[in-house]
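Running this now, will post back.
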Amino acid sequence: MQPGSSGACEYPRGLCNFPRLLKGDLPTHCVSRHTVRVRFGETDLMGIVHHGTYISYFEVGRVEYMRRRGLDYHSWTQLGIHLPVVEVHVRYRRTARFDELLCIETRLADLQRVQMRFDYRLLRPELGDGGEELVAEGYTTLACVGHDHVIRRVPQDAEAILRGPELTEARPEPEVGLSDRRAYEGVVPTSS
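Update: finished.
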């Protein structure tokens, strides 16, 4: 069921009290790619990546998505905001093994007033042809809550940053706060 519809709610208590609010389609640049190497401790006795590790890879992708836009998790906590995962789904397509390189593709798929969804694809480079093989795919839904664990609105500053492109490596990272980051990007005029 969709939020706000009648009947049983599939979302955590409180999320259904807010209507769906997606401000236009998300830009195509709302995607990041990050490469990881499978570590020995992430595998089972057969040398295959343990099923629970894929969720950790998704988290790595999500953290990198935000970091590459100048918004790390420390910035959220400075605002008194936490982003607990309230839903996760993984579809396993192929096995991954120790020491393989994998690419985590993370896409901001949905951004609403009090929650966001990230979609993931875990890809392995195909040897020789330059293509990629799909190893796993899935998504996580995160709620926006305060220190008191009460649902809060995603701050508008953060919303604009999440919808923005990755920062180029030549640019220095902003020191503090979302408003400073927006001014740095030219979204908010700065005083001279």
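Helices lie at 53-67, 73-78, 156-163, 178-184. More later if anyone needs it.
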